[in-house]
Fold:
Amino acid sequence: MKRPGQRWLVGCFCLVYFPLSAQQMLSLQECAELLTKNNLIFRDGQLQAEAAQAQWRQAKSQQLPQLGINLSQSVNLGRSIDRFTNAYIDQLYNSSYVGARVSETIFQGFSVQNEIRQNKLLKESALENSVAVRDAQLLLMVQAYVQVLATKALHESAQQQVATSEEQVDRVEKQVKAGVVGANGLYEIRAQFSNDKFDEVTALNSYRMARLALFQLLNLPPDPDTEFRPLSVTANEPTPLSAADLFEETQQNFPFIRAAELRRQSFNYLVKSIKGRNYPSLNASADFGAFYASTNKQLDYFAQLNATRNGSLGLNLYIPIMGRWQTRPRVELAQVQERVARNQLDQNKLELRQGIEQALLNVTASQDRYQVARENAEALEASYATVESRLNAGTATIFEYSLSKANLARAQANAIRATYEYIMNRKILQYYRQASWEGVF
Structure:
């Protein structure tokens, strides 16, 4: 009969290093791809980036000349002016007009150019922000994935405890029937079996909840046949830089920092664009037209159009006199928005620095817990083996056995939690070190 400590060590070894056979096995990398494809929060970030690109193209379109064609048809009744002779007439007649106009803004204080630069920065900021949204969702996915593996290992450990208790119940029942052990011993071992069964049901519910949370994050219907590939852990990994050095080296590489910086810069161009409205503007235009009047019986429709064609070229200079009174509040608002964006950038940097500090501390603490928990589990495994041998020899009581078994189960659970906590914290720290999830999975 394998002892529960031996079973736990074999189970953890298989969980950490060997894939499980199932109808479908998803790795952490495959879950990341599914999240990128299905997650609605990330999709919202992509749509916002597309909207920012459309706004940038809209701003660029203001540089294009305006071209329009005008067609009109009218019927005149009573006294009116003959369009062809400009004389008064009193009759029913119809007239047509065709025309075209091209206009272009030559100068407007570089307002349009600065608006284009502003929207270009906003477009780049939105693209960076969509990546930041994806990274944030991937962080949640990594935590949920590791939680699934941890709760699965805890459930399997609890199942092993139930199996061992069940074997002990059978053995003690035989001893009671043989008169070797009193009935009190059987009651105690059955109580231990009930406790283990309760812990096994609790662990199973936790495992199911963790799986549901991961499937919901991936926007997939829960599939009981889907398994998740275990992760490896290395205890002696290199120690990273200090939090301050790591922050200084990587802060400009994080998408949400770049997004906030680009957004802050965009307001500088917004201020310039608004101030450009205070300068004189110069527009050029070209017009062409022709008309037809039914009162002219000498020329047909197309001959009249050819005879009445006309065109013009024009320059229009507009000098605002009191424009600053209108633009000044808009400039003040844009300047406030720039300060808000600067403050948001500082908040993002603060959150990043605190996240790096927390990640470093979590890795150090979880590594210590991982090592201590494994040593504790191994020590209690040896102690349990001794008590079990004494119980079989009749030199230990059921109470000693139950206490030793409970201590071992608690130590094994702590070791499992510490193992997966350490795995998760190492991956989060790796993300902070390289400012992306590439290669982390």
